[in-house]
Amino acid sequence: MRKVKVNYTDYLKETLQAMSNTGLLLTSADKKGKMNVMTIGWGTVGIIWGMPMFLVLVRPSRFTYGLIEETGEFTVNVPPRKLNEITFFCGNVSGRDHDKFKEKGLTPIAGENVISPIIEECVVHYECKVLHKNDIIPARVPEEAISKFYPQGDYHRIFFGRIISVFANREVKID
Ligand SMILES: Cc1cc2nc3c(=O)[nH]c(=O)nc-3n(C[C@H](O)[C@H](O)[C@H](O)COP(=O)(O)O)c2cc1C
Q1: What is the domain-level CATH number for residue 109?
Q2: Is any ligand 1 atom within 6 A of the Cβ of residue 150?
Q3: Interval 65-88: pLDDT, tens
């Protein structure tokens, strides 16, 4: 592994591009270290209270939701294009009944500052600690978004993850 510490702004373009294409891989773990990975397509990176933050939107129905609630931590990993099939898989089966790391041969590496692992096969890794959370307020969502995204409710919780550290493998290309 050749992961080096980088600035949180170094891979913003690649991160946002991957998020809007096939998605990013978010890992979480319970207090005993049981880990899970799910795909996210919604989120943003920015500054809040003078600190770099990764905001992710997770629906209560996700297994991941309970894990982030339990430990208040997560990592976001940018997969290279060759992991497209795995990214799709992680966004379509639940950690409640699958060990996605094992089934797809993903290698967890212990996070430096968080209990959630980073994923060796990915290129960029954000380690985040939840500083704040907020639920989508249905009454303030445009009607067309309600019918398109929330026919069953299951309104996202927005986790504000303070970016503690960012690692990258500078030799591997995302595309
Ligand atoms: C491309 C893609 C993007 C997704 N983005 C999100 C997201 O931002 N938030 C969310 O709650 N679910 C999202 N999902 C759905 C979850 O990844 C999916 O329900 C997953 O199986 C949840 O895993 P878990 O139950 O192990 O947490 C996305 C799925 C795909 C395929």
Answers
A1: 2.30.110.10
A2: no
A3: 999 999 999 999 999 999 999 999
